[in-house]
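Reviewer comment 2.1 asked that we show a complete input and output for one of the modelled complexes. We chose the thymidine-5'-triphosphate case, as it is the one discussed in the main text.
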Amino acid sequence: MRIILHIDLDAFYASVEERDNPSLKGKPVVVGADPKGGRGRGVVSTCNYEARKFGVRSGMPINFAYRKCPSCIFLPVDMNKYVAESIKCQEIFRKYADKFEIGGIDEFYLDVSERCKSYGKAEELAKGIKRELLEKRKLTCSIGISSNKLVAKIAAGQQKPDGLTMVRADRVADFLAPLDVSALMGVGPKTKAVLNERDIRTIKDLRKLSRQQLTEWFGKFGSMLYDEARGIDESPLIEEWEVKSIGRQITFPKDTRDKKLILETLMEIVNDSIKQVKAEKLKYRTVTIKVRYEDFYTTSKAKSLEVVHEDEKTAQLVARELMMPFLKDERKVRLVGFSVSKLVK
Ligand code: TTP
Ligand code: MG
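Response of the prediction step:
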């Protein structure tokens, strides 16, 4: 039998900003695009729990958020800072795991089956993780403990922020029964609508359907849903390094057609990005560049390399080659971007 922990940091980007700027303490904070007094474009990345009281949510257009809470403090997204913080947190969490999987920038799975022979031990371990995170990084997280990834993740979301929810193997079915079907992996608005139309709202309702019925409606995913509704999930932890990409972009102070300036700027961000790649002991396989013209038309081009690289030289050459055709355009350039992906440890 396995014991799996799921850790999800609370209001991650906003918590990092609050920690680093104590004057924000207790105030509603939104991290995302610039609201420009209600005329801004782009969305909310996240917000702290104070801002959530006003109805602000991740993914909401930033000017909606501004209307809901003009007194909120709006901060830009500082991705480099959050990536660096995520890595610091991982260093803490990894020590507590037999196997470790990165689920996203602020979520992690820990298989602790070998070191914890009981749920009681796992609960103590989880408390230790929370203590060390608070002490060393001044952050809080919510942890779910159960017999697989699916239920551990759902459990982690039950008592946010700063929660700890343990669902022993024999309690899984009861724990899931009253929850909304959207709690399950892969059930988005579309699947939920199909189910709700047939009056299926909770996971308990979902269990009334046969595997065959669900497969008819949803194909292979239907069969997965049948298992999920019963809390069955055998999927192992995937330990591979999974940071999606590392990159930068720069908007020129003035739109420009100056090829030299554009290429120099591109090389600067190439070098910055590769520095980060090296610092994180990664290698890259794919190079992407991005161009936005004065009319905001935005385009990008990528190239995948035969083997992985870690040097600036290759990145510079490929980035330059990818950029050349875009410099033939009549339009002035407003922004250039660069990133590497397919990263491996
Ligand atoms: P989440 O863990 O979904 O959200 P959160 O950590 O901000 O808040 P919670 O306490 O509910 O866990 O996402 C982690 C980070 O990912 C979040 O801080 C910002 C980013 N993010 C986006 O940029 N856009 C989004 O739509 C979501 C959901 C998250
Ligand atoms: Mg989170």
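The CA atoms of residues 142 and 157 lie 7 Å apart. We note this here for comparison with the apo prediction described in Section 3.2.
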